[in-house]
Design a protein that fits this description.
This protein is an alpha+beta fold. The chain contains two helices and six strands, in the order ββββββαα. It starts with a strand and ends in a 5-residue tail after the last helix.
């Protein structure tokens, strides 16, 4: 879950009728390689399909509540898609992932230390090991 700017301005919160997506962006991993991201007014479905040991196909679908009926609505969805797909995903998330992969590929590090807030990554690897039967090995 990622906090949104609106969370800074929240005082006492009543949970009656609260739409969490106005304060944070929840995301859910659908094992093994699909992520659902709940934006305030649409849903992103992201998949990473392995193609080779160091290659994956990243796909992002934007699901909106209904097709746009006006040019203004169409422009809104286009702008939203470009902001998240080309901005956040491409320039931030994928840029960081590709840089980490290049660093790992050098073989310069004998081990990898996850930070204190990175425990979901360890959960993922534990689940993957269990699904592949590697947990007993």
């Amino acid at each position: 879950m990622t906090a949104r700017r609106a969370l800074r301005d929240v005082g006492a919160v009543s949970f009656d009728g609260l739409d969490l997506r106005q304060l944070a962006t929840p995301s859910y991993l659908v094992f093994p390689s699909t992520i659902l991201i709940l934006h305030p007014d649409y849903l992103s479905v992201v998949t990473a399909t392995p193609l080779a040991p160091a290659r994956a196909l990243f796909t992002h679908w934007m699901l909106v509540p209904e097709l746009p009926h006006t040019p203004a609505e169409e422009a809104h969805w286009k702008k939203s898609f470009e902001l998240i797909d080309e901005g956040v995903f491409e320039r931030e998330d994928l840029f960081a992932v590709e840089a980490m992969q290049r660093g790992l590929a050098t073989g310069a590090n004998e081990s990898l230390l996850f930070g204190e807030l990175e425990f979901p990554a360890a959960w993922f690897h534990d689940a993957l090991d269990a699904m592949l039967g590697a947990a007993e090995a």
